[in-house]
Design goal:
422 residues; 4-stranded parallel β-sheet; 27% strand; globular
Length: 422
């Protein structure tokens, strides 16, 4: 696969999504209104594509309190000294496409009135609503841990101050330190993410000359994404530094204690110098409060267009959705957004629509010039989004191939942030 440039990325994502210009003739009425909640890879992409591809025929409002978006994707690279902080912080350049951005949070959704109430009490009426709030963290899912405890044992699973706190703690470690990561249960944002983070932490320790430090992963799962590739990479680049423990090994996580910096499992009590707790996750609160989620905490959707299974006027996409075989990733969210944009333009402006085609690729850095990937193509099948073609890097690949994958990863990042934020 050739290195991915911004041009190649944007072109590839448009294939199969049916992006066409708006029909010249539209009904003589007030502009239909699209409101989008959440300015991440899902929401911002929908807003931008609906606005620009409808040529202003649809009134598009994006509700997002952040004035800059810090990408969770590639935040591990900041942690591992592969990227500076400013390179993962992005302005919203959506006005040129015709998007109106409201710099505050959405407080509630009134599905009967088809209105979004904002934090200041004002109301935005909608004809169609896109809900893309990302994930919330279940702070009660790890005994002894809490939102307050995250200031000592950070999660850094929502990019921002928590990411910077974890980086500060990592950089302060002396040789002989013990890092403990509490990995999350399925399903969660970015399946390979915790293990890429382990690799990035190990790279920092190695760079600083650590020979006695160790990283212990307490995992509730018995397998994880790209497992063979990560374990091969840890052995090749950081021999003896990473210890991954599945439930059969640790017997279950009992508790953590931020005051004593200890992690208790059925097997042992570990005294740590840094604890990274990545807890159970669920759809963002606004989606759950609106009755769009089911008992899993995530939102069921129609696989043909990402429309909420609970409301025909609402689309739910990105990390908050139950997207079948598709993982919760930035690439997946951006791909889903193209399908949603097509569906919205079809419903509100009469544009042609085509069967949904989804795609995803996830890259993971293991060491400098050693990056691996996994991905696939997806379609609606038997009531769910199903994988129709998949690929994954192979163990034992040569240095040139891994270096090329690293370059492809950086090219993809440059392309996707331009595609999302303008």
């Amino acid at each position: 696969m050739i290195s991915m440039t911004r041009r190649h990325f944007s072109t590839a994502l448009l294939v199969g999504t049916g992006v066409l210009a708006m029909p010249a003739m539209l009904r003589a009425q007030a502009k239909p209104r699209l409101v989008v909640i959440g300015g991440g890879p899902a929401g911002a992409t929908v807003a931008r594509y609906v606005a620009k591809d409808s040529n202003g025929a649809i009134d598009v409002t994006l509700v997002e309190p952040a004035k800059k978006f810090i990408t969770c994707f590639h935040s591990n690279l900041y942690l591992g000294d592969y990227r500076p902080w400013d390179s993962i912080a992005h302005d919203y350049n959506l006005a040129a496409a015709g998007v109106k951005k409201v710099d505050q949070a959405a407080a509630a959704i009134d599905r009967d009135k088809k209105e979004v109430r904002l934090a200041d009490g004002s109301v935005l009426p909608y004809d169609r609503l896109v809900v893309a709030p990302g994930i919330d963290l279940d702070f009660g899912s790890v005994p002894g841990w809490s939102e307050a405890a995250a200031e000592v044992m950070p999660h850094a699973w929502k990019a921002g101050p928590q990411t910077q706190l974890l980086k500060k703690q990592l950089d302060a470690l002396e040789d002989g330190a013990t890092i403990v990561m509490i990995a999350p249960p399925n399903p969660y944002r970015c399946p390979p993410g915790p293990y890429e983070r382990v690799s990035c932490m190990a790279a920092v320790l190695k760079k600083k000359g650590h020979t006695k430090s160790r990283i212990v992963v307490i995992d509730p799962k018995d397998r994880f994404s790209k497992m063979a590739l990560f374990q091969e990479g840890w052995q090749n680049h950081y021999p003896g530094m990473v210890e991954w423990m599945d439930p059969k090994m640790h017997g279950g996580l009992k508790s953590v204690d931020p005051k004593t910096m200890t992690v208790v499992t059925d097997l042992e009590t570990i005294k740590a110098d840094l604890v990274n707790v990545i807890p159970k996750q669920m759809a963002g609160k606004i989606a759950r409060d609106a009755g769009l989620a089911n008992a899993t905490g995530y939102c069921p959707i129609d696989p043909t267009n990402m429309k909420s299974a609970n409301d025909p006027n609402i689309f739910v996409l990105g990390d908050a959705s139950i997207a079948g075989a598709m993982p919760k990733s930035a690439f997946a969210a951006n791909s889903q957004a193209k399908v949603v944009a097509m569906a919205v333009r079809g419903e509100l402006a009469g544009s042609r629509t085509f069967p949904a085609r989804y795609s995803n690729t996830c890259w993971s850095i293991i060491a400098p010039d050693d990056t691996v990937k996994i991905g696939g193509r997806y379609e609606a099948k038997d009531g769910a989004i199903a994988e129709v073609e998949g690929f994954v890097s192979k163990t034992g690949e040569g240095k040139d191939e891994r270096r090329q994958t690293s370059e492809e990863n950086m090219g993809w990042y440059k392309g996707i942030v331009a595609d999302i934020f303008g």
